[in-house]
Amino acid sequence: MATKKIALLGFGTVGSSVAKVLATGKFAGVELTHIYNRDVERKKSTPNAKFVPKTTVWTENINDVLSSDVDIVIELIGGLDPIESWLRKAITSGKSVVTANKQLIAYRGAGLLRLAKKHNVQLIHGAAVAGGVPVIPGLLQGQAGDQITRIRGIVNGTCNFILSKMEAGAEYADVLAEAQALGYAEANPSADVDGFDARAKLCILSRIALRAELDPEQVPTQSISAVQAIDFAYAKELGCTIRQISAAELVGATVQARVAPMLVPNTLPMAWSHGTQNMVVASGRFGGDVVFSGHGAGGEPTAVAVVSDLLAVVHGHSSVELPIKKRVVTGDFLSPHYLRFVVNDKPGIVSAIAGALAKVGANIDSLLQRPGHDKNALPFVVTTEPCLNSTMDKAVRIMGKMDCMLEKPLCLQMLEREER
Amino acid sequence: MATKKIALLGFGTVGSSVAKVLATGKFAGVELTHIYNRDVERKKSTPNAKFVPKTTVWTENINDVLSSDVDIVIELIGGLDPIESWLRKAITSGKSVVTANKQLIAYRGAGLLRLAKKHNVQLIHGAAVAGGVPVIPGLLQGQAGDQITRIRGIVNGTCNFILSKMEAGAEYADVLAEAQALGYAEANPSADVDGFDARAKLCILSRIALRAELDPEQVPTQSISAVQAIDFAYAKELGCTIRQISAAELVGATVQARVAPMLVPNTLPMAWSHGTQNMVVASGRFGGDVVFSGHGAGGEPTAVAVVSDLLAVVHGHSSVELPIKKRVVTGDFLSPHYLRFVVNDKPGIVSAIAGALAKVGANIDSLLQRPGHDKNALPFVVTTEPCLNSTMDKAVRIMGKMDCMLEKPLCLQMLEREER
């Protein structure tokens, strides 16, 4: 096996961990020849720089890599531009690519994969979803024979950290601040808490598992920021917890897909996922439910996925390629819903709410009201029998206009108690 | 991609499901040309025979397959002989092999893999462990970059069915009879309940995950048949349940390995595994714990693994090959232990038991005695601080000779409460 020359684009948390994992593993057939990063001198003084071979060329000029004779480019910078054009150049000049770039693969992966095939090189991205958890290789190779009809999971560690802390009693704003202090959440947490990060990953998983190409912009998202401690208390009464769930399901020619905080019954493995853990459940026609879980983020777990991809390419990897179809997305799942109201309590409120639900055709399954709250700001909960998200949206719009509502009603989809 | 000709050896539960999964998936590049089985006429009248193409040759003569021009042989018969010699002939004549034969791969896999490499064909066995759960592809491809130091799991669905029913209150003999009636357990259940099936799978996982070649005969096993309903009651008091655990850990140049019923704290994912579910936890130096779970057995889940392997070979699969070392096995884990006694209660028994433990150097951690038992056949439990299994074996030998013991003390290893 001839030694392959490797270039690393990005020497941040993951990139520097890749250097460490490579140096520690002493893998045959791999030579780190180039590292591209801005401000190379600063990077050279970071702790993991000691794992970089003395012969490696550090550069701030991407053309030093693209015009070199490296065989494989590892891209760990992220974002769409200029990364896509750099990787297109690499592929066109016969270099294989390993990347953990979820946005790039979600939005432009189909075209890049076609280009790689045309140039007879590999484009491999096992680290783009769930970091150290081998969901992508597991699906691509281990479940290729099945027909996966549904994929659900917890793929954003920041949201899972926040929600599992809230389950233990904390309030959203406090946990978000803690997550920011720990480096789990960005100063602007929108990509995580509003579901855009998870949405990109869901689209990648849909391509691989459902063989469905989705436009990420068509997949509805709901922020976790409206979830409050009181919702966990009510969820507990219902035998559930709350997690940010990314779900996609093949239904005829369309794909139902959504990223949202949802009520998860304690009987489902997804309810057991705590902290920054990731979990993906793939449901197959023949194989039933398969669960993958582990550390989805962090430098070293993600570096493991990157190095595993690299070794696959070095050892002559070739993915199973099955036909992928473009699919229209609908955010409309038929499922029970949880509605939480905060009202200024007056006679007739329950009747008005029941009326609004009746008007859109939704049936009430249960009504919960915990004692000990101020009548002037009374939180209470209604759960419904299965109905469409769009039906509930209509009901929420009607109810949001009622005088007694002190805040917009919170509507959360509830997962079914039983696995299929 | 040229169409590959496929032969299926064995048209039983898994083999016939492979025919069904292949026919339903309509995969390009695959043609089922031969089926070998005894009593072909009977097999042709089984329900899944309708999924077999009309052009497929059915034969009772293995040489019809071995002398044919098939490209890939799928072996689903099981056992060591004559299967090994058949597969050696297939490999030598340039055929790739897909197999779910755990005994063959555990005992003779190393030699067969070398032979396949020499003849430049594939030998792939993702279905040999945990059926439909892609543990083997996940480890081989997704975690190749990590250094896995420990592998633990629930890999025998029959034992998990029995023990999770006992957790719910049933007695061993009754559940075993139920498992036999349901077809989950053989008339002679020894391979399952005594741990030999799980041991073969543990050796395969050790080769792949720990890169350690073990002699299965060196791996100690303990039967689940001595576990009683009372042990689940005491385990519950200790915040645990009981599962058949297959565990292997790299410690210096040796591998600690054992298959036994163990106390599993409810905080660990393995405690959540119910029914015939399988679960494997791989602990890596860089990636931490990764959990795989799902349906480990049954015709269709196992057929998914077989067809996925087949597609990998058809699409030009090439495994990451990392160096594998022969390793000496020790069954000696340093861990807390659970000891359950049934005694004819007399003064001085606790003192005598404590004396026996002190003699071997084991410290008592807790002593539990549930009320409501007959003093003439009193079950009670002692747990110890961490000590070696061999130390406990000595203590059990000493205590087994005491006059008051009505049955042999049961000693179970306890897993630590915390994941690393």
UniProtKB/TrEMBL annotation, chains A, B:
Keyword Nucleus: no
Annotated ACT domain residues: 338-413
Lineage top rank: taxon: Bacteria
Record-level GO BP terms: methionine biosynthetic process; threonine biosynthetic process
This protein's UniProt keywords: Amino-acid biosynthesis, Methionine biosynthesis, NADP, Oxidoreductase, Threonine biosynthesis
Enzyme Commission number: 1.1.1.3
InterPro entries: ACT-like_dom_sf (IPR045865), ACT_dom (IPR002912), Asp/hSer_DH_NAD-bd (IPR005106), HDH_cat (IPR001342), HDH_CS (IPR019811), NAD(P)-bd_dom_sf (IPR036291)
SUPFAM superfamilies: ACT-like, Glyceraldehyde-3-phosphate dehydrogenase-like, C-terminal domain, NAD(P)-binding Rossmann-fold domains
GO molecular function: homoserine dehydrogenase activity; NADP binding
Catalytic activity: L-homoserine + NADP(+) = L-aspartate 4-semialdehyde + NADPH + H(+)
Pathways involved: Amino-acid biosynthesis; L-threonine biosynthesis; L-threonine from L-aspartate: step 3/5; Amino-acid biosynthesis; L-methionine biosynthesis via de novo pathway; L-homoserine from L-aspartate: step 3/3
NCBIfam families attached to this UniProt entry: PRK06349.1 (NF004976)
Protein name: Homoserine dehydrogenase
